[in-house]
């Protein structure tokens, strides 16, 4: 057969079929049942694809599926999709392989069978997992990768070519090798565009009353094959490469006009997929997938080992940038930097090691409108995912922060706190006024508090609650110390000047790289300074009797983060002294 | 009789030739998951309400039908008719009639055999009201001209005896085994095995008793059950423990689990025959319900290989559909001539509507219409089952599965119930749309439920009271705890048997806070709590919750203790005194106008019903909120007046409060009350009051520092040994609180009385003139609670003397810290009850007497005024004790009230 005769990009199903036939043929002599052999296993298609994508540089040619590209991407082609696993819809059984006459055929990576399915005796059931994926909530525009323009042109051109080619194939007696729905697919894509437009309007309205994400309503139903149970967890960010399918026939059969009495009583048994009609939620049959960390979002990062002086240079420029946004307040900027680098490392009964939630105080309504905005913009340009919640009475009383399972539809409704790990959350308390919180408001406050203290969000499953570990950095902006949401570190901001903040694209890139890299650096411990630290602490406690366990562990966290900010893995006396100095200056302001 | 279909378990592609003659085999019809229909419902003598999936059986029989017709002999499979190409709706009906006539000694088969004389002509069945008993119609006169009914030659009374005798050997009569298509199940073999099981299975425990029973029919465990079912009206199913089946016949068990459809159909037939032999008039069909399989599957592990197998899964019902009436038998009426058709059976989910009237004279085309109220329906319900939290892996969401319930199982479980379901896992193809014949390649899966068991029933009974009035939140927590019950119970019990469990628990409580061991022990008691008592006659109740107050210097880790307790207590609420409004489920946000600090005032107490309410900065609580606490801490309710209605809400909470001294540092020279400015009425409601004073101790500081450093450097050698982790501790406490309800033993009660009397007597030490109260009735209640809590820690149902002794020790430690009169060094409850110690009172009286004397001596009525300081000087000269101006002022104000002097500003005048 030689090299691939099929176009992996435009006709991945051809490759699927071919490799399957090849695999079946090779298994024939051994006399084994091919269906049993390839059940829950790959028969070589993934290897072929991996080689194409990663060795032959095919990855760049795969268009990224998003709300805009959905309009021109053709069904049954290879696409890339980056999203957060928002809900797990369980498993789906399908006829994996069946015998058509005397040849085995497969339905893997397909929504429906293009052939009439023979009686059950000659079919085998396989299973696949369904995930409902959404674009990562709060993803900032710089971190969103979209299909480069030339590629788009290319594909559009190819699409027209394909049509000519297709006609030839149709004449082929073996015409089944391609999809009959190609025609309909492209012709109906216009129709679908309209559909999508109205659908997204509808959905946006739906969403805005709950969470305040400026999300486009785009979401994807990803079908994943041959995967161990716990490969993906909820709220993980994953890149899926797979086949985008769209079947107009399935779309036309809307549930509402399905009044067949046989079926209606089984509506109740319907899987959740029916609530995600294919016309609104595209299907992707995943071939290759990989988890994405925040580092993967920083394109062409300097591959070199982070050199101390490079890091130090970036750090200094970043601190000055942050202090600029905070009106030349260096102390606050230092604390903010530590906060941005914080990440929960160890969880124990008493203290959470590594997390450092920050409360910047001293903002009035007016100053918050200046500095708060600048700060928000800075965070948006620096971190891949960020989200701001205005803490008003009204918001707390009405917003759906808690993700909640809707047992009617079987879906997990996204609350504002269903966030991908590594998301930055800004809570703006300056807008808070006196007022009464209703029971929902109280619940929301407890939820936020719980998140800040334990990095856990409780998901409501109606009859019980499940605790989901999250990794979210919380920053609170308030007039005075927030008693509603107690943060680890309270820093009054003393702005001295309003300076216009600007940064070049190059700088921004360096800072982004710095933040993600430093955050992911492993910590190591240098036990030689243990004794010194203990003495220091005992000394400090003697001076100030009000020092408690939480203060001391905060110092440790800050020292560790301080060391990390210089690219060091373990902290030294020098870093400890720096933290002590910051603490001293901070105390003066309180 | 010869079976002619014989094939072993063939691997999928080898189709037996005969299968092609039937339009069956493994396919998944859209609604009724029928297998090919060869055994028919209507053929059974009575109203047969078995869910459809169990009936069909791939049995094919030779010309048995004719053989049976001739000899009238009915084998267990007498009803089985060859499907072949014959009209399936006719043959079974004919045989049914024969069957009924054979087994019933009279042609009439009334639904109430006892009330209706057997000889009465059966007109009953023809009335529309008995629509469920369609199958029992056999009187030709009652049925308007059924063409088929005429062929029924009523045979003589059947020989029930004979059948009884050879019933067991029926299976062996056949020399050629009959296999269920596609399997290695020999029908005869299975039939025999089931019969043997039903007849002879004995519980190992009751074996000895039953052997004495001479009666053949009541010897086996299930035979007895069958008899009982037959005696009871309404009982329609026979629960069979799968463990019993396995014990008796592992092979049968395996067959049952692998081919449940086939085996259960045989099970039903065997059972029915058995019943018919015992009482031919017994009309109800008894269904077999298998439960308690040897292994249960986790919901997320169900996979294609489980399809068509018997599975057992645990889960929680999250949703129930409304009841769906499912048509079982349809009756049509000719619109032209009014002729009623025979019942038409559902065949693979479809009813074939007759196209023309069956009456010879009429034969009108397309005239038949369905008569709804004469059709027979069965109940059906679809239930969604969701995984319980303990089965969900980290970072996953719960899976759900649909369960199909039939007949009696409908509404057997409500949303929120934890259930264990035994059923058959099935898959069903999805059609794309109503018009399209194309079938999607996707399958929907569901479970046909055979048996439903509520798994949390026993637990509900234990803490019924809790579940009834606890709100939603509490229910959630208790649900969460349920998982512990099964796995961890043994571990917890083992723990409780450790001799040092008390110390170990103490160590486990806030392990990073050192010293304060007695405080921790008190807190531990609070977590476990005593028994709440309700005095039946008067309706008064005694609280079981223990309230604790911590008073101490700032920075003495009081707050940490509170935080820790908050984490441990299942429904703990942590609030600051500054923001507690005690009542209400809502909260109020206030903004300090000066600092801009926002404060959340939440109604902590109602929310922490049955939990621990931790109130930090208790001293800063508003008087209004504090007054509410009076009610909470003794009556355990909160009264709310809203819209003219006074509502009393439950607030059965233990209060753990901590307060800072008003002068930032605790002044040991003053009493507790003076130090924290709390009203004595409130203070006396705390069972234990601990003083935590900061004795700048470098040792402790060093340990804290070391601990924090080690937390970061993860030095394993520094970890505290033999400590229960947080989750175990929580589990331990919640188990003890729910299941252990200790009672005072006689010795303990005696010890309690003795010690209490002793404690009170201590106040009357010789030499002291005035009685000092060292204990009050409130203390004895506290002591009982404490000793009950201590017994709970050991999972002991009895409070022993040791517990009482420890309770006394704890109380004394607390009293010594808070109620010690510093001037005498003895415990004085008056300090807490009134804020003034007895010795202080004596001193004041002495001063008063001296002042009075002085006034009488020095001042003349109406004479010139004297300055207070002068008087003080005088007093100091006279008196041996130290007198302060404040003391003098107190004495003078008393004299003023007596009307002896006028005390104005700084001058005193006698009147």
What does this structure look like?
Chain A: It is found in: Nucleus. Chain A: Keywords: Nucleus. Chain A: InterPro entries: MCM_complex-bd. The complex is a heterodimer of chains A (590) and B (911). Chain A has a five-stranded mixed β-barrel with strand order 1-3-4-6-5. A five-stranded parallel beta sheet of chain A has the order 10-13-17-9-18, with helices on one face. A two-stranded antiparallel ribbon of chain A has the order 7-8. With 590 residues, chain A is of the alpha/beta class. Chain A has helices spanning 12-27, 34-37, 45-55, 149-171, 181-208, 248-252, 261-264, 294-297, 308-325, 330-341, 365-382, 393-398, 439-454, 505-520, 530-543, 549-565, 573-589; strands spanning 77-100, 103-106, 123-134, 220-224, 237-245, 283-291, 346-347, 352-353, 358-361, 386-390, 404-406, 411-413, 423-428, 435-437, 456-460, 465-469, 472-477, 489-492. Mean pLDDT of chain B is 66; it is low at 1-174, 207-218, 433-437 and 457-481. Chain B contains 29 helices and 29 strands. Chain B is 36% helix and 17% strand. Classes of the chains: A alpha/beta (590), B alpha/beta (911). At the A-B interface, strand 1, strand 3, helix 6, strand 14 and helix 13 of A face strand 3, strand 8, strand 10, strand 11 and helix 12 of B.
Question: For the largest beta sheet of chain A, what order do the strands appear in spatially?
Answer: 1-3-4-6-5
* Radius of gyration of chain A, whole Å: 28 Å
How far apart the termini of chain B lie comes to: 129 Å
Radius of gyration of chain B: 41 Å
Q: Helix content range of the residues of chain A, please?
A: 25-40%
Number of helices of chain B: 29
Question: What is the general shape of chain A?
Answer: elongated
| Main sheet summary of chain B | 5 strands, mixed, barrel
Q: Biggest protein-protein interface?
A: A-B, 109 and 106 residues
Low-confidence stretches of chain A are 160-215, 251-266
What portion of the residues of chain B fall into strands of 2 or more residues?
15-25%
* Main pleated sheet of chain A: 5 strands, mixed, barrel
Overall average pLDDT of chain A: 75
Structure summary, number of beta strands of chain B: 29
Task: Calculate the mean pLDDT score of chain B and round it.
Answer: 66
- Terminal-residue CA separation of chain A: 76 Å
Taken from the alpha-carbon principal axes, the silhouette of chain B is: elongated
Structural class of chain B: alpha/beta
Q: Count of DSSP E strands of chain A?
A: 18
Organism (chain B): Rhynchospora pubera
Biased composition (Acidic residues) (chain B): 162-173
GO cellular component, one term (chain B): MCM complex
Family (chain B): Belongs to the MCM family.
